[in-house]
Amino acid sequence: MAKFYGPVGYAEIVETAPGVKEERIVEKFHSGDLVRNTRKLESADKLNDDINVANEISIVADPFARENFYKMRYVGYMGALWKISTVEVQYPRLILTIGGLYTGKRKT
Predict the structure, then answer these.
(1) Which of 19, 67, 90, 95, by CA, is between 20 and 30 Å from 34?
(2) What number of other Cβ atoms are within 10 A of residue 101's Cβ?
């Protein structure tokens, strides 16, 4: 099993003006193990195929991660940010399943 250490992006809702709320990304670094490492190409009506991974990363859940696992948006792995599609709680670990590339807001 390969080791993992990298950033996980959490979306926190903040009020930027009265009545206006938006997501702000906060990154926390976590360590753990790469449980499953797979990739697939998805063909579509586009010039280039999309690369998706279906990896599972098991991280050690610190108190912040355990209390905010529903806010997880992306994980940094192999030089890219990947969307977290599911989070499975198996205390003291969280199993993150990642999918396609993350294209949303990044840490500000």
Answers:
(1) 67
(2) 14
Asked whether 88 and 95 are in contact (CB, 8 A), the reply is: yes
Is the pTM of the predicted complex or chain greater than 0.70? Answer: yes
DSSP notation for 11-50 = EEEEEEETTEEEEEEEEEEEEEEEEE--EEEE--SSSSPE
Question: Token digits for 83?
Answer: 């969307």
Of 23, 41, 31, nearest in space to 4 by CA:
31
pLDDT digit string (tens) for 14-55? 998 999 999 899 999 999 998 887 766 666 666 666 666 778
Cα atoms in the Cβ-side hemisphere of radius 13 Å centred on 95: 9
| 65-88 pLDDT tens trace | 999 999 999 999 888 899 999 999
